Task: inverse folding
């Protein structure tokens, strides 16, 4: 089995590979992770000060500010995106329905920026994607009969 330091290094390097971190932040996180691993090995209780779960914490951004024209902001972490679905899944392991329920967001509210939705709508109109959809629905209706 790996030593505690090797385990801490693996954990921190995995985190650092997905997040931008300064040298000081890397060292601080390495020390913190190593300390927690030591406590776990000794069987001590691990208490983190000021830790709150996502459900306990209030929204990072108000609902009014969250849904903008050019960006949609995550109400959990406050980061801005063009669309939220992928971010919610990867960063918070959450489905859009769960996110809507947690913050009371109506189903009619899009989780994509208004400009992005409009550009996609215009592209669909230009490529006449609605005609293809209508044909597919017609064919499906004929098969059912």
Result:
């Amino acid at each position: 089995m790996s030593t505690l330091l090797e385990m801490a290094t693996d954990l921190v390097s995995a985190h650092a590979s997905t997040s931008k971190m300064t040298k000081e932040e890397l060292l601080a996180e390495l020390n913190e992770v190593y300390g927690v691993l030591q406590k776990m090995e000794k069987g001590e209780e691990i208490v983190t000060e000021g830790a709150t779960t996502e459900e306990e914490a209030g929204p990072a951004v108000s609902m009014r500010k969250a849904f903008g024209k050019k960006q949609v902001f995550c109400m959990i972490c406050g980061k801005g995106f063009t669309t939220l679905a992928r971010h919610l899944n990867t960063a918070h392991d959450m489905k859009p329905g769960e996110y809507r329920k947690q913050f009371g967001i109506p189903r009619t509210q899009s989780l994509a920026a208004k400009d992005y939705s409009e550009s996609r709508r215009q592209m669909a109109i230009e490529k006449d994607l609605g005609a293809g959809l209508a044909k597919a629905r017609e064919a499906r209706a004929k098969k059912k009969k």
